[in-house]
Design a protein that fits this description.
Radius of gyration: 19 Å
Largest sheet: 7 strands, mixed
Strand order of the largest sheet: 2-1-3-4-12-11-9
Mean pLDDT: 87
């Protein structure tokens, strides 16, 4: 009998938070939100059931338990309500583990929000509270760099959005197009993504070949890319409208968000966003050889 074939891609999700009640009722655990994104991204990338194996590792409560690098092809760091710059045992252990991954060149890293910041910290960047600009929340446009435009599809995203019978997002920024030719000549040079953060990576790390992917007025480092090694975004492509609404409502009730921030963010929460496309790019990045 032949041994079972190995999946084409083995991903370990490092679960860095516990989640809120409504989201947990649906997804059962916080890491499953990111797993859903990766599964949808794999399907969008043309992979079949069984091609991708995803495991979830609780790194908050099980501090000493991390996947063995020989057992995975990619490591995905989730977002978190905790501070990426905290000097506490579980975050310090997490940073050490990421440094271990950075010291080799086979296993790749993907990070969102807190995960993006932890990877930046492990690479030597300053991370901390963005006191001068404050919170960045809800669906937000990100200005992409040349590398960001190349990585996140550019015109191809626009074309597929127009042709999709499912109404997949078509984001035109401030431009108004009346013909297909005008749309194709302009292209999509920005990205909309859910945001929920006050902490940031302040500057790009002193790491070989790291490439900026985008920026916003509140956050200069919206993504980092090292070909065949690292891909991060500050936003939350894994979030859905209902997940974001629950977070906004809870933080408003807690007094974290005042009425003005809450109402303005709720006004944008239903806008279209590029989460699925980013999820597909995560999978394609992890698969690329």
């Amino acid at each position: 009998m032949n041994p079972p074939s190995r999946p084409l891609l083995r991903i370990a999700i490092l679960e860095c938070d516990t989640g809120l009640p409504k989201a947990l009722a649906k997804y059962k655990r916080y890491g499953a939100i990111s797993s859903a994104l990766l599964k949808s991204g794999a399907e969008a990338a043309g992979l079949r059931d069984g091609d991708v194996e995803i495991g979830i590792w609780d790194v908050v409560n099980e501090v000493r338990v991390f996947p063995k690098l020989e057992d995975v092809d990619g490591v995905f760091l989730t977002g978190s309500k905790f501070d990426s710059f905290a000097d506490i045992p579980w975050t310090n252990k997490l940073v050490d583990y990421i440094k271990e991954i950075l010291a080799q060149d086979r296993v790749r890293l993907v990070g969102v929000c807190f995960g993006h910041q932890i990877i930046g910290r492990a690479m030597g960047a300053k991370v901390g509270r963005n006191e001068s600009q404050g919170w960045e929340v809800s669906v937000t446009d990100v200005d992409l760099t040349a590398e960001g435009k190349k990585l996140f599809d550019g015109k191809d995203t626009l074309v597929s959005s127009i042709l999709s019978p499912l109404g997949i997002r078509l984001h035109l920024g401030c431009s108004i197009f009346t013909t297909m030719e005008a749309v194709l000549s302009e292209g999509v040079w920005d990205q909309s993504i859910y945001q929920m953060h006050k902490d940031i990576v302040f500057d790009y790390p002193p790491f070989p070949t790291v490439q900026p992917l985008g920026s916003t007025a509140r956050c200069k480092v919206q993504g980092m890319f090292v070909p065949r090694r690292i891909l991060t975004v500050q936003g939350h492509p894994e979030f859905t409208e209902e997940i974001l609404v629950e977070i906004l409502e809870v933080r408003h009730e807690q007094g974290v968000f005042g009425d003005e921030i809450y109402e303005e963010a709720m006004g944008r929460v239903g806008r279209g966003h590029d989460g699925l496309m980013v999820g597909r790019k995560f999978v394609e990045f992890l698969m690329e050889r």
